[in-house]
Structure formats: structure tokens, C-alpha cells
Amino acid sequence: MESLIAPPKLKEGDKVAIIALASKLNPDDIQGAISYMQNNWGVEVVVGQSVSASYYGFAGTDEVRARDFQQMLDDTSVKAIFSARGGYGSSRIIDNIDFAVFKQNPKWIIGFSDITAVHSHVQSLGFQSLHAPMPKTFMKDEFSLKTLQPFLFGSGMSYEIQPNELDRNGETEGQLTGGNLCLLAHLIGSVSDISWEGKILFIEDVGEYLYNIDRMMIQLKRAGKLKNLKGLIVGSFTDNKENDEPFGKTAYEIIAEHVSDYSYPVCYGFPSGHDTVNWSMPCGRAAKLEVGITKTILTFQ
């Protein structure tokens, strides 16, 4: 399977933008990221109004966040857009965004968590985007931060991790898609939903009750989203919660149960998601997944 259209490579001197598509933040939380991008990548950083805006839990009203996003999409001098953080709110504004200029002048859109809604929408338009550390989380892990640069500046990347006892071995190739499990389930049936047929799916989540992970996996299965995958990459499932009565399975065991009817390769414990270590994943790019007895390798061209 071929990759979706990749935005142009970044180069030294390019302008990149930071906006807040979802929850509010303290602007001081992204100063380290701004300095890093300026000093290590040699790019110019512009910051949108939403980064310092506040409306209850949101980074400004829907109108403020949508206007910020639209402005940065339409500004052809801006070559990449980072969401400062996730939280909640991207899906509230996505239907109000006009991607006409973006389609003619695509640029990298970077984020994870709630930004999964944006990634799926961008893929529905035929373009790659980057599920990756956001400015608020930039300084958590040095290697995770360094995984951004190969994709943004245009080189290949290969990851290697240790096996997990729940892995299902095998080799496969397909276009990568995925992100936050909650958002992926939320998007089903919307205009931002995409087909996963023949693709390698990756999923992650944070702070969910175990029964709700089960419910979301059932939703994906009943909607036919799991049966025709080429492979599955299970990332971080952190801070899981129990009801008073234990559910009886871990998050990974729940996922393993719901994909047990299928034969494609599955790897568990991939370091992508809501954890200190969060490796960059290019949505819409062709990938090769090798789940072996001694190691798992994920390769992007």
C-alpha cells in the first residue's frame, strides 16, 4: 500500500506554528519547546492566540481555536502546525475548518491524544500527519523528542522493541493509522472516519476504566473496524481504572481477547501514547511491521 501525500520537508529557517486545539494550558509550559525548536532545528516559531486563551477548560472558545487553526492552515509561510497539548475540544471545531488552502499547500500537523480527531480528518483528505510529542510534553523524554526530526525533515525511521508475551508473531506491510482509542471509537460514523481496511492500526489510551476499554474494543469490532487490518500495534495504556468490582483482565488482555478471531500480527507495549516515552508515528505512511520471537521492528521509508 502506498503512503498518503507527505507535506514538504521542513528546512532550517522555516516558520512553524504552535496553537492549542483543545484544552487550555499555561503558556510557560511550552517555552522549553520553543527554545528547543529554535536552537536545535533552526526554525522560526510563531504562537497563536489560543495558547494563552481560556474559556472554562478550553484554550479559548471554539471560535478562537478554530480561527487560530484556520489562520495557520491558510498562511502558506507556516510549514508545520503543532498543537500545544491535547485534552478535549478538537472534534468540536473540525467541521468548521476549511482545508481548501491546506490541500494546495499541505503542511505537517503534529499532536496526539485528542488531536487524533484531526489526524483522522487529515487522512480522509489524503495527507499524512504526525502523532507525536506536543510542545507541552516535548521535554519529557529526549529520544521521543528526537523521533520527530526524521519525519519532519524528511528521512526514514526504524523502531525496535522487546517482545511481549501477548504478541502474535508475523510480518506485514500497510499504511499506518490510529491514535487514541477513545477518539477512534468516537469518530466512527463521522465525516472524519476513515477505512482501516488493509492498514496497520496503532492504539493507545490513558485514564480509562477497564470496562470502558472493553466497550470501545467491542464498538470497533461490531463496526467491522478490526477484521480487515494488516496488523495491530498496541501502545501505552496508562493509569487504567477499576470499578469496585474488578474487571478481571488487564487492558492488553482485553485487547487480545477482541482480536483473537483474527490472524494478523499484533505487538504490545509499543512506546507511543500517554507516557513519558512517546515515539512519533506518521499517520498515513506505509510501514513494515515484523513481530518476532526476539524483537519487534517497525520500519518507515
From TrEMBL:
Keyword Disulfide bond: no
LD-carboxypeptidase C-terminal domain: residues covered: 173-289
InterPro entries: Carboxypeptidase_A_C_sf, Class_I_gatase-like, LdcA_N, Peptidase_S66_N, Peptidase_S66C, S66_fam
Classification via CDD domains: Peptidase_S66
Superkingdom classification of source: Bacteria
All residue ranges annotated as the LD-carboxypeptidase N-terminal domain in the record: 16-132
Coiled coil: none
Assigned keywords, A-Z: Carboxypeptidase, Hydrolase, Protease, Serine protease
Stated family: Belongs to the peptidase S66 family.
Name used for this protein in its record: LD-carboxypeptidase
Organism: Emticicia soli
